[in-house]
Amino acid sequence: SALAKKLSDLNSSQQSIQTLSLWLIHHRKHHATIVKVWFKELVKAKDSRKLTFMYLANDVIQNSKKKGPEYGKEFATVLRKAFEAMAVPENDEKTRRSLGRILQIWEERGVSESEVEVEVDGMKELHVTLSPRTPAGDPPEPEELIKALSDLENSASSDAAVRERVANLPPEVSELSYLTKLEDRAAGERLAIQVGEAVKLLNEYNKRLSAEMKDREKLMVMMRDFVQAQRDLLAQAELRLEEYSEKLRKVYAVRQEVKSHLQNLPDLTQLPDVTGGLAPLPSAGDLFSLH
């Protein structure tokens, strides 16, 4: 199938994983079939390539949450078997650490509605509780977040002038007991005017406070989405750092071997002069010239 071919061409580079991940997310309506093929090809793959399949699953699960929980739920049905199929040798610490990191990410994020128990190192069982959570929305741009925070600097709750006006309202506008102290109609009319002004002031201020609450709730969602996006990026960066640190270690090893090999090779510039100072051979013209 086309998917099996794409999986066979998959390599551990970030571009390869992200490209196929985007393709799978685009075709998420076929998530059940896709996960089945993914698991089948993982089982068939060489041990050296199986970790790349797990990186792909991680990318799909993390980046599809905004569009829906389908992949998280579907992958949860095969995760245990997938980890069992990894058959990681006891001395392969790098792969064990990478798998443990992926599991830790899933545990922190929550991508489905089931629980998976995976034994990573033969000693520790990692219980990954995949709980239903509200999928994060598209994270705001930093400029949007800064503007929202800046707007709240002039919020109703920080309006000291209005708060002072409310605090200085005369007690008679809020205490019924003062009504018994009214001596005549004129005093009652003056009180009615004061109460009307207090009602207007408090109504307007309460409306501003209600609007501020909505703005703060909106800001909380924006910050949640922004923080979640940064955590996802951090997790991906950590995985990449580990992967490329291993590549760098291999390059260092090759460089060291090259240096060692060069030291054992002869330096042709230091070889003795094999001609021994002999005169040069005669040319063809010299050989056939007549004396």
TrEMBL record:
<dbReference type="GO" id="GO:0000993">
    <property type="term" value="F:RNA polymerase II complex binding"/>
</dbReference>
<dbReference type="Pfam" id="PF16566">
    <property type="entry name" value="CREPT"/>
</dbReference>
<dbReference type="Pfam" id="PF04818">
    <property type="entry name" value="CID"/>
</dbReference>
<dbReference type="InterPro" id="IPR006569">
    <property type="entry name" value="CID_dom"/>
</dbReference>
<protein>
    <submittedName>
        <fullName>(California timema) hypothetical protein</fullName>
    </submittedName>
</protein>
<dbReference type="GO" id="GO:0001111">
    <property type="term" value="P:RNA polymerase II promoter clearance"/>
</dbReference>
<dbReference type="InterPro" id="IPR008942">
    <property type="entry name" value="ENTH_VHS"/>
</dbReference>
<dbReference type="InterPro" id="IPR032337">
    <property type="entry name" value="RPRD1A/B_C"/>
</dbReference>
<keyword id="KW-0539">Nucleus</keyword>
<comment type="similarity">
    <text>Belongs to the UPF0400 (RTT103) family.</text>
</comment>
<dbReference type="GO" id="GO:0005654">
    <property type="term" value="C:nucleoplasm"/>
</dbReference>
<feature type="coiled-coil region">
    <location>
        <begin position="227"/>
        <end position="254"/>
    </location>
</feature>
<feature type="domain" description="CID">
    <location>
        <begin position="1"/>
        <end position="134"/>
    </location>
</feature>
<dbReference type="GO" id="GO:0031124">
    <property type="term" value="P:mRNA 3'-end processing"/>
</dbReference>
<keyword id="KW-0175">Coiled coil</keyword>
<dbReference type="GO" id="GO:0042802">
    <property type="term" value="F:identical protein binding"/>
</dbReference>
<dbReference type="GO" id="GO:0097550">
    <property type="term" value="C:transcription preinitiation complex"/>
</dbReference>
